[in-house]
Amino acid sequence: MPVFRKRRARAGAPAEAPKPIRPRPPALADRLARIAAEAAAPEEALELALRAVLEESGAHAGALCLFDPRQAVLRLAVERGLSDEGCRRLRTVRRGDPTTWDMPLHGLMNGRAYLIESAARNRYVPRLVEPAASVRTVACVPLNAGPLPVGSLILVAVAPRSFGERDIRALEPALGHLAGMIEAARRRRRATETAGSVESSAATAGLVAARDRLIADHERLAAELAARTSEVERLGSALDTAAADRARLTADLEGARRTAEQVTPLTAALAEAERARARLAEALGAAAAERSEQARGLATLEAARTEAQQLADRARSELAVARQVAAEAAATTAATAAEQQRQVERLEARLVDAEAAAARRVEAARERERAHERAADETRAALAHERRSREEREASERRLREEREAVERGASDGRAELERAHAAADQAMRAHAAAVADAETVRAELTKTTHVIEALEDEAARAQGEILRLEAELTTADAERSRLEDALAEVRTRLAEAGERHERLERESSRLRRELDHAAAVGRERMAEGAGLAAQLESFAAE
Predict the structure, then answer these.
(1) 50, 81, 112, 461 — which has fewest CB within 10 A?
(2) C-alpha angle with apex 95: 91 to 101, nearest 5 degrees?
(3) Pairing of strands 135-145, 113-117
(4) Half-sphere exposure of 143 toward its Cβ, with a 13 Å CA cutoff?
(5) 309 confidence band (pLDDT: 50, 70, 90)
(6) Alpha carbon distance 4, 495 (integer Å)
């Protein structure tokens, strides 16, 4: 809402030349002067004057409110085109009354003209006309007769018409005539009231004189009458003196009231300027404190940015070292795994060969064992045959002994048979010796076969131990490979964590840069606001 007021001249400063503006034609001022001269009643003159102002300004509606200095209120005198709500809000305007619209009273007390643009969308402006949506601008112009406020002019412009500061300033000469008309109407009202009081005083004085004459006619004491007359004269002179003093005091009081009314806006403006200066000083102090806080924040942000940069550099170096270590560990792991794989393959080949050799040895041992078993069977068969032969020989020997005994007892022809028996016995003995030798040979071969079997069993045990050792080495190699794979996974995890930490540090660094830029922008805005507040303070001090 643009607000403007006339600049007051400084004390002791030369009067400034008025700025050239395009005034309205002087027909309005002449028309108002003619209305003031020709109107029979003040209310009629004010109504005609309001109509002339509305026609000249192009306003759709308007009102003229008169100021009552005794009660400090504005009262609606005349209006044209206002709605019922507008008349109700402007009928009696008091400061702080929520049922009225006190913007005209504020403008009159502050000596400012208020221009309210887009009044239809302003929730503090009542519905002055119907329809309210067509209202473009509302102007509240104070009316002053010299230094004294006398009233306020309200103008309402509807689309497409609108008011500007130039339009209001062009109305100032005519508004002076309007304020003069209001002051003349006030003086006329006061003169009428004074004349009525003088006439009533004269009538009262006549009655007193008649009463005195009646008393003088009926009283018999002329001396008392003379004394009373002299007393009345003395009291009359004293009354005249008191009336003169009262008139002088009334004039002084009126002058003091006018001076107070003049001083009150100045005092209010000075107090407002002092409050504005205090607010500006507080704002400047707050801005300085905020600048220092921003400086500390900038230093903190710079330190944090430096630390984040150092952390990022350290993370990059750690990442490079970790990558190098991971590459070396991967190469070492790959070489170790390849070597272990080759060793495992060699061990597996040796194991296969050992198993094949052990299988061949076991098969040969089993074959020899089967041969020994066959030889043992043959030996047992030979032994059985030898046993049978021995039994047969023993039987033969018994028979031979029996026969020899028989021969010795019987006949000499039995000697040949005895010899044959001895030959058979010798042959049986030789067969027995051969069988015993074969049995010994078989026993030796069996013992040798047993030793071979035991050696093969030992070889098989050693092969089994080698197999177990190779399996243990294979398990160890698998464990080592698992450990190396775990170490490689850990290195990869550390690499991923280092990458995430690097990205997090990059994001933190970007966030710190954005906060630093935002803080710098806020600092610049606050410095600009402080400069604007300082300029306003200088403007208030200049005024």
Answers:
(1) 461
(2) 45
(3) antiparallel
(4) 25
(5) confident
(6) 70
The per-residue DSSP string of 326-351 comes to HHHHHHHHHHHHHHHHHHHHHHHHHH
Which tokens is 293 given? 């806080």
- Rounded CA Rg of the chain: 71
User: Would you tell me how many other CB atoms lie within 10 Å of the CB of residue 229?
Assistant: 12
Task: Please name the helix (run of DSSP H) or strand (run of DSSP E) that holds residue 162, with its range, or none.
Answer: none
Is residue 509 within 8 A of residue 315, CB to CB? The reply is: no
Owner of token pair 């107090």? 271
Domain residue extents for the chain: 20-190
The answer to whether residues 149 and 183 touch, using CB atoms and an 8 Å cutoff, is no
> Contacts by 500-503 with C-beta closer than 8 Å and gap 24+?
501/315, 502/312, 502/315, 502/316, 502/319
CB neighbour class for 372 (10 Å; exposed up to 12, middle 13-18, buried from 19):
buried
Point out which residues pair with 296 in neighbouring strands.
none
What pLDDT sits at residue 210? 62
**How many CB atoms within 10 Å of residue 375?**
19
Q: What CATH number matches the domain at 20-190, 3.20.20.105, 3.30.450.40, 3.40.50.720, 3.90.1150.10?
A: 3.30.450.40
What mean pLDDT is predicted for residues 292-310? 78
User: Can you read off the two tokens belonging to residue 222?
Assistant: 């002329």
CB burial of residue 158 (10 Å; 0-12, 13-18, 19+): buried
Angstrom distance (rounded) from CA 387 to CA 382: 8
Between the CA of residue 442 and those of 372, 379, 383, 389, 510, what are the distances in Å? 8, 7, 11, 19, 99
